[in-house]
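Quarterly update, task 2.4: magnesium ion-bound model.
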Amino acid sequence: RQEQYRRLRDVPAVTRDGVSISLLVNAGLLVDLPHVKEAGASGIGLFRTELQFMVASTFPRMRDQLTLYRAVLDAAADLPVTFRSLDVGGDKVLPYLRTAHEENPALGWRAIRMALDRPALLRTQIRALLHAAAGRELRLMFPMITEVGEFDRARELVARERRHLERHGHALPASVRLGAMVEVPALLWQLEELLERVDFLSVGSNDLLQFIFAADRASGLLADRFDALSHAPLRAMRRIVEAADAAAVPVTLCGELAGNPLAAMALVGLGYRSISMAPAAIGPVKAMILALDVGKLQDWLLPALSRPHRSLRAELADFARQHDI
Ligand code: PEP
Ligand code: MG
């Protein structure tokens, strides 16, 4: 199997009916970087910047952040990298950051909420990213956006830092693309307004599923209770890709779902053409893509979305078996 996947490394991820799928990796530390090329990925779809903060014993300084971001961009060379701004709180704890006790940290003061309340932290990070990407493209997305106004405020912070660097004669990125993560269900009813503002979207299915089902992503007791391949989340994810396509805004999905071949098949059937996963998942997912006829899958899956069943998992597995995927 491993050997078979290694042979696929340089084979483009194109379905049997000629649809190209961009397979990206999730990363977060320097040690992840060699895997990007080894896995034959087309870039880093999610760089979790909080990992550097989580392994440190105090806040990494601007210079340390800059060094890491530059190393990431250098390692990726010509491949695109999407950085995510600091996503702490919830399941991602910084031992040295003292915060008030919260009964429900997953629903609490975390990610962009904390960043907008403590703009100095976010501004330092933005400055490090702008420096690191001098002369290249900077792609940055914000986690846990719940209202479009939060994206506006984050974008304004980026604009301010850019003006600051410009005034001081620093080299700037050749281009800056800003995106939002879609992981809070409230955004499903603000997609049009959001799509007018962003350069790209990235669906965080881990949190999106947790909030759609109101089921803690870390709870072992609930791990198998609700199915990601059931109607509610599949319809939600369909709605996002449909709206993004209509607005001609690129969309990626970067939750763990993308690394499971059957789920990845469902995502491609829903219309996703870019998915980001753990490096080890690239081989199995690519093997699935090469065996898939997207047209056939969509002809069956999209109408099936409007028929109420508890889960489409068994039917998706049947489809895969019938079509030798
Ligand atoms: C997600 O929520 O799906 C996601 C990609 O981010 P994280 O798992 O880091 O919360
Ligand atoms: Mg998340």
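Highlight for this quarter: The longest helix spans residues 148-167.
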